[in-house]
User: What shape does this take?
Amino acid sequence: MTTTVLSLGGSIIAPDKPDKEFLSAFYEAVSAWLDQNRDQRIILVCGGGAPARDYQEALRTVRPDAGADSQDWLGIRATHLNGALVRAIFSAYVTDELVTAPLDEEISFSGQVLVAAGWKPGFSTDTDAVYLARRFGAKTVINLSNIEKVYTDDPRKNPDARPVDHISWDDFIGIVGTQWTPGRSTPFDPVASALARESGMSVICAGGRNIANTMAILNGREYTGTTIG
Assistant: This one.
């Protein structure tokens, strides 16, 4: 079977609370695709979204001296909650437990869908997605978030930043840097980027709320987004 990895950003699972309309439409589209493509399987890696940011901000407000690990663990727990929700939604296709340690040699992938969430401090679930892609032979990670394309610079800070259809890993890492901080928002996290470059992997960044666009990617058709690598 062919394996596809989708890094499903928490910003589209739970932008402020679980987005029931999006989750319903996403499930309907992906389940239909799975039914039509029985030789395909999908790994869904779930981010933390608003719950992660809200709890991290609460900790920083009450304890400004709180360390990065403590903040990261709050974000990781939020990914577990989102992962449990997504796993329950796709229960007809999932036969394995929620994956929270992508390098665990005992991971089983016996269904058509495997759902994963955060692992440990130091990076986001993007890194978990790259580890699982390497583990199960996927050469591309589809990164679905609230960002439709990668820009040449941060458009919030540089009005001359422009969207691109393709960018090399070296140029992308030049934009996002190499350091991870809890709650940081980037198209793809710096630790995951270094690992993907080292693995010879490409990443497609696309707007996850555009479900028709996601299905175009899955079906190998023209899509809106940025390929990194």
Summary: The chain is about 40% helix and 15% strand. The mean pLDDT is 92.
